[in-house]
Amino acid sequence: MNKALDTRNVTDTSRGILDKAVEYCAQKMMLEGTQSVLDCLKAGDGRACGYCHYSVAKQVAECLGTLDENVKAAYIYDYDATPQDQCNGGRDRGLPIHLLVWADRKTAALKVMAETWDHALAQGYAELIGGLPSAHVLDVQVVDDADVQARRGYGALLSSLHYPPVQLWSR
């Protein structure tokens, strides 16, 4: 890891990430002001959640890549959610955000960094929408070159024809 990870800095940065995500959502949905976006998020509006989650994922991917030279690229991917996953009172619609991180090698430091971001974003998201914190906001899966070449586990997603992940960041 190239730069030190300061938990307080991650907490402050996560608040900024969430604020930018709300702004991004307002622009994309042509909504007036932050409160309109927050109302949509509280109601579980799929489009609002999708735009906010995409923005959060993109910003976190950039941070992970900047903080760890081992990271080659980061992607967001979707999964087939069950009706129970999509109907949690609207509060957690689409959570967690699924990130796939392609790294030169899997390290404990990268795992801790992802967990730190997850915790900070869960707290910040709860404060933003005025609810209880989710157990997780981020689901970060790390793959290395061997996983990608062998199409093993999450590494197979990078060559998927039917459900390819969307690249958010690359070195």
Provide a descriptive summary of the structure in words.
With 171 residues, the chain is α+β, with helices and mostly antiparallel strands. 50% of the residues lie in helices and 14% in strands. The chain has 6 helices and 4 strands. The protein has helices at residues 7-29, 33-42, 46-67, 83-86, 108-129, 145-149, and strands spanning 71-76, 97-103, 138-143, 166-170. The protein has a 4-stranded mixed β-sheet with strand order 3-2-1-4. The protein is globular. 36% of the residues are buried.
What is the overall silhouette? globular
- State the separation between the terminal residues, measured CA to CA: 15 Å
Largest sheet: 4 strands, mixed
**Which strand order does the major sheet show?**
3-2-1-4
Report the radius of gyration as a whole number of Å. Answer: 16 Å
Structural class comes to alpha+beta
DSSP strand count: 4
What is the helix/strand order?
A: HHHEHEHEHE
Estimated share of beta-strand residues: 5-15%
Mean pLDDT: 87
Helical coverage, percent range: 40-55%
Low-confidence stretches: 82-92
Count the helices. How many?
6
Task: Describe the structure in brief.
50% of the residues lie in helices and 14% in strands. With 171 residues, the chain is α+β, with helices and mostly antiparallel strands. Strands 3-2-1-4 form a 4-stranded mixed sheet.
